[in-house]
Design brief:
Helices cover 33% and strands 16% of the residues. By secondary structure, the chain is an alpha/beta fold. The protein has two domains: 1-106, no CATH class; 108-244, 3-Layer(aba) Sandwich (Rossmann fold). The strands form three sheets. A five-stranded parallel beta sheet has the order 8-7-9-10-11. Strand 5 (94-96) and strand 6 form a beta hairpin.
Length: 276
């Protein structure tokens, strides 16, 4: 597949750094690709494939890869035709058929750990989208599948697997009860993802969304319906921050307020803490 085949209307892709690069983007005619996002946020722009032609997906991935060859470019919500064209154009790309996602370029070294829990196998597409996103955004990931509340003993048996994570992504459809149960079992930061899985009264995931928003478990935040990508970005950033050493992190002695037990009028010697 030639470059001109990949570019919409036969356009040759222009190298990153032209057509708006001074403003942090590349003007492709049909899109203004944000090539500056990596430097602003720590994460590059992602190609949302829904509504784009396969040619456009390939063209955008190529330009993102050119802009930051040392960091994976991610494309989500790709149909089978787009996945096939990405595979043909970039044999080295990682393709996830279940998620409908592709990454081009090296994944960052993982920092921290995200655990993705899926209520059922019907939630796999959204859960896998979250997994691909977490990997592309630089965190380690562990998956636990088919642990919905209809058989809560399966979830209880997996508690040790998710209790040591830095952030959880909990994916569920139907009534969306799983995040509340998980939130009652652990204090790990948790983002819930409602899916559009369910019978008629689930209203395409609305029932799960409302159930999660009304969770009685504290510390549960909620993404939009089927938004495994958004949850993956959030969780990866939490995990990366949790794993990052801080230069100003107080030691146990420093974090203890020594003034709390000194007599009125006393001060402490800054060198040895002695009261005087």
């Amino acid at each position: 597949m030639t470059s001109s085949d990949n570019a919409p209307s036969g356009r040759q892709p222009e190298p990153a750094g032209q057509n708006g690069a001074g403003h942090g983007y590349v003007d492709l005619g049909y899109a203004r690709l944000d090539t500056d996002r990596l430097s602003r946020t720590g994460d590059p722009e992602v190609v949302y494939g829904a509504g784009k032609t396969p040619d456009q997906v390939v063209d955008l991935l190529r330009h993102l890869h050119t802009a930051h060859p040392d960091r994976a470019a991610l494309a989500t919500r790709l149909d089978s035709t787009a996945l096939a064209m990405v595979r043909e154009a970039f044999p080295q790309a990682r393709i996830d058929e279940v998620a409908g996602a592709a990454t081009l370029g090296p994944l960052p070294a993982p920092a921290g750990l995200v655990c993705v829990l899926a209520a059922g196998t019907s939630d796999a597409r959204v859960a896998r989208e979250a997994v691909c996103t977490v990997e592309a955004f630089g965190a380690g990931v562990r998956t636990i599948t088919d642990v919905g509340v209809a058989g809560v003993h399966r979830l209880l048996a997996a508690k040790e697997e998710f209790d040591d994570a830095d952030c959880l992504i909990v994916v569920a459809g139907m009534e969306g009860a799983l995040p509340s149960v998980v939130g009652g079992l652990t204090g790990v930061p948790l983002v819930a993802v409602p899916t559009s899985v369910g019978y008629g009264a689930s209203f395409g995931g609305l029932a799960a969304l409302l159930g999660m928003l009304n969770s009685c478990a504290p510390g549960v935040v909620v993404s939009n319906i089927d938004n495994g990508f958004g949850a993956g970005v959030f969780a990866a950033r939490v995990a990366r921050r949790a794993a990052r050493p801080r230069a100003d992190q107080p030691t146990p002695d420093q974090s203890y307020d020594q003034t709390q037990d000194q007599a009125p009028g006393q001060t402490r010697d800054s060198a040895n803490g002695a009261a005087r």
